[in-house]
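User: Good morning. I'm curious how nicotinamide-adenine-dinucleotide would be positioned relative to this chain. Could you predict the structure with it bound?
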Amino acid sequence: MQTISHWIDGAAVEGRSGRHSDVFNPATGEVQARVPLASTDEVNDAIARAAAAQPAWAATNPQRRARVMMKFGQLLNERMDDLAEAISREHGKTIPDARGDVQRGLEVVEVCMGAPHMLKGEYTNDGGPGIDLYSMRQPLGVVAGITPFNFPAMIPLWKMAPALACGNAMILKPSERTPTTANMLAEIIQEAGLPNGLLQVVHGDKEAVDAILDNETVQAVGFVGSTPIAQYIYGRACSNGKRAQCFGGAKNHMIIMPDADLDKAADALVGAGYGAAGERCMAISVAVPVGQETADRLVDKLLPRIEKLKVGPYTAGDDVDFGPLVTAEAHQRVSGLIDSGVEEGAKLVVDGRGFSMQGYENGFFMGPSLFDNVTRDMRIYREEIFGPVLSQVRAESYDEALDLVMSHEYGNGTAIFTADGDTARDFAHRVNVGMVGINFPIPVPLSYHTFGGWKKSSFGDLNQFGPDAFRFYTKTKTVTARWFSGIKDQAEFNFKPMD
Ligand code: NAD
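Assistant: Good morning! Here's the predicted structure, ligand included:
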């Protein structure tokens, strides 16, 4: 059995706490590795070492830091297959999907190659007589990234690339369920030229996270995970005086208007609902067709597509549509939620609970499920399921459909399928959700825009990646300067405009 190490000061370091967590292969159900759970002392030690390394990195000119990003991008491309295999082995997602996981992180690295431009300050010449103002963006120092299991490459890359490009050191605490990829990323960026100590990968659970939150050296915390933990981390980080941005769970609705191309809508729903076994924060989990006829026709379109879905291990080839859930616990939770939907009166049109994979009977596989006649009060509507379950809620009108999306406590992503530009425009303007798709089911913005939800899907005021990341990982200093060429002014005592 493999024992995973922390990555400290550019080398693998064994855990010293004596506590470990099992890492499963979700396809076989076997424990394939043990990951150490860091103690408070181990975390504090990693932070102190990062703090010692950071000033020299901050003093390195931004072009040189950008060159590390360029080499890092090149190496990520070269190691794409190894990274994808490591992701699939611990997460269970298919290889093409795991490559997408790396690719969407790599695209953020590509934007960070332009860090010198993103870090440029502002300048005002002659803001007053002989007075110039300029602002500069300076790194925060040591920052932390705490990431979820479902994107083992993409989300750590969203955190580490901008943080490091801005001149910070980062403590990365990846998910204990999918820990290996973070170590690989650390090794690769070291090969790309990142000096030791600037990216410390510390594995762990609540103890390690709390140590990060309470350590005075850590200046900022970027979190991605479930909403209760996001809210907890946001509260504790802020009350300890840190900058925090914490992204949480989701319940993404897709409205299907009567004029939509239903074949395209059904294709989009199947991909966005069941892809990665529904373990995506941008998965569409609620379909809201407008009108009974649209709803009936949509179910007719969905059924043959769902029947054709191929569930299997990532090793079975590229025609597998999705793999197992990440753990037995996740499998149990999703099954329990499906049970609750049946008990509360929703119509279970397709039941994925009894699915078993020949030769992989101990794997955490679950077939696709489809519910119809779901209502607002049901648990399967209110809670994030994070499994291969699509719920259809029937709406009588566009306004009722919009109200469903607007009233839900989550606001990560949403989509509308329609042939009418006016309806689409109205939806995009009015909806209180952070990322909107128009005839596009998973509207994850490109890396030069920004990513973030609204309502209970996000705590904090800046988004991830793009220009917001450069704001989050730097602080602004503004200088007001005057050079005397003789004594032009007498002492002034009033706070007044510079005129
Ligand atoms: P999680 O909240 O269980 O874990 C996320 C991180 O928090 C992990 O590193 C974990 O070790 C740590 N953690 C867990 N419990 C903790 C506790 N009690 N105290 C301190 N730290 C704790 O989330 P997950 O199951 O790994 O990921 C799935 C969730 O993440 C879903 O809710 C999904 O919607 C969400 N997610 C959101 C986004 C987004 O951008 N909004 C992206 C991906 C995933």
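Residues 40-58 form the longest helix (19 residues). The longest strand covers residues 131-139.
Let me know if you'd like a different ligand tried.
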